[in-house]
Amino acid sequence: MEITEQDLEKKVLSYAPFDIPKLRKAYDYAKNYHKEQKRASGEPYIIHPLNVSYVLSSMHADIDTLCAAMLHDVVEDTEGTLDDIEKKFNKDVRDLVDGVTKMTKLDLNNKKELSAINLRRIIVSLAKDPRIIIIKLVDRLHNMRTLEYKSLEKQKSKALETLEIYVPLAYYIGASRIKDELENIAFRYLKPSIYGDINKQREDLKKETKEILENTKAKVSDLFKKNGLKANFEIRYKDNYSIYKKLLTHIKFEMIHDMMSIKVLVKNTKDCYLALMLIHELYTPINNRFKDYIAKPKTNMYKSIHTTVFGEDNHLIQFQIRTYEMERVAIFGLTSYWFKYKNNAKNIMKQDLEDNFQFFKSIKELDSTILDNIEFVSRIKKELFSSNIYVYTTTGEVIELPNGATVIDFAYKIHTDIGNSMVAAIVNDEAVALDYVLENQDRVRIITDSTAYVPKEEWLDKVVTTTAKNKIMEFIRDNE
Ligand code: MN
User: Which pLDDT does position 67 carry in this prediction?
Assistant: First the structure.
């Protein structure tokens, strides 16, 4: 859908009518600075900041956030300056634009001390005003939605960066709808054929199980009515990326227990437990699939009750039971209710984050305990960002490995024979030692010699993946 300035105004009119003149001013300002610029799609550039503001207006973002979203590329891409933005708007808008501009340069893979100082500054500043993260996430979301216009190479590197940095950030602030969308788009570009296969299987399953789910829903709904419980239902299928991750753990498609779920939305917490009781009365639950995230919320504040039952025709169906308020938090994270405190959103957010969110607590703790900048960045990376890295083969294929994986892990991941005959490795055009620890976006070439008899016992200390360990032990055993 094409978003216009009128659409945005209509949204804002519904919750902050007096801010419309300011919003219009930001729109005109941005439009004027970006005037000649075009997006890769050929559209006028202003479409992009307009879309970013529009998504934020759906979360009822405050006017400073909306203005900053509108202006977020002005300093980076045009003659516009921060000083002028402060003069025409205010200090908060300036700081937000500044933060978003700096965050664009967040490169966790740069190993120089100077950049570690900068990185540390950016990361610590994120914790100061989380609205920067929210704007940046929505900025990335719109760029990912329009990624088709970019070159293949750009598509892959943006998709990788999204998985590495933005998906974890979205998770940390609990913005799960944004997280899911980012993951699924990134996945589609990184592994198009696997994505296609999974999507097809999922669509087939949807056709096959539509009736079963509808029947289950109807029965539960009936029982609720008899007990005077009001609820809304939504049928959902696991998204493609989550399915992919499950398949990677060697669980078969048919065996995924939460492939199909029914979301049950009720008024208050008491009704959640009543709903749970009634569902269990109707269908037998699987013992170890019950989770009470209301009593014990996830670290990102997600609350819900999950239970998987043998539904109609003995199909495994997961129920997710939560209140409408919990649902809002599940979609947008705490952003949804922070923005209710209009003028004070920034401070309330900050306090909330520090009290409740592990991510922000960790930043504060690490910042106060670690002096060395490189060490700080590496700890942040290890503790807070993706536990996996993504590297390229020489043909541009993307390989996913756990953090800490070496070129030997890479070789075995490609093929057992390649691992077993590996004699050297070249990363980004330079020869490296066999215990070289891979970094995101490395390009890796393995040199093999089929007459070499190579895997040695000491290799076991140089690998982290179970596959590589097993293959090396197997080789040693077979060749003793
Ligand atoms: Mn942008």
Answer: 97
Distance 101 CA to ligand 1 centre (A): 9
Place of tokens 């994986």: 405
The highest-level CATH class for domain 5-190 is: mainly alpha
Spacing, Cα 48 to ligand 1 middle (Å) = 7
- Average confidence (pLDDT) over 61-89: 94
- State in Å: Cα 139 to ligand 1 middle: 5
Q: Say how far apart CA 62 and CA 66 lie, in whole Å.
A: 6
- Determine phi and psi for 323, rounding to 5 degrees: -85, 170
Per annotation, catalytic residue among 7, 9, 36, 77: 77
Cβ pair 274, 224 in contact under 8 A: no
Catalytic, 153? Answer: no
76 in active site? yes
β-partners of residue 406 are: 437
Domains of the chain by residue range: 5-190, 192-332, 387-478
Q: Which residues contact 58 (CB under 8 A, 6 or more apart)?
A: 11
Q: Under CATH, which number does the domain 387-478 receive?
A: 3.10.20.30
Element at 381 (helix H, strand E): helix 373-384
The model's pTM is 0.75
Indicate which residue of 28, 76, 234, 313 is catalytic.
76
In whole angstroms, how far apart are CA 57 and each of 5, 178, 288?
12, 14, 40
How far apart are the CA of 364 and the centre of ligand 1, in A? 28
Per the prediction, the chain carries an average pLDDT of 87
Indicate the pLDDT class of residue 9, thresholds 50, 70 and 90. Answer: very high
Topology adopted by domain 192-332? Beta Polymerase; domain 2 (3.30.460)
* 248 CB-near residues (< 8 Å, 6+ apart): none
CB 317 within 8 A of CB 309: yes
DSSP one-letter string for 283-350 = SPBPGGG-EETTTS--TT----EEEEEE-GGG-EEEEEEEEHHHHHHHHHTTHHHHGGGGGGHHHHHH
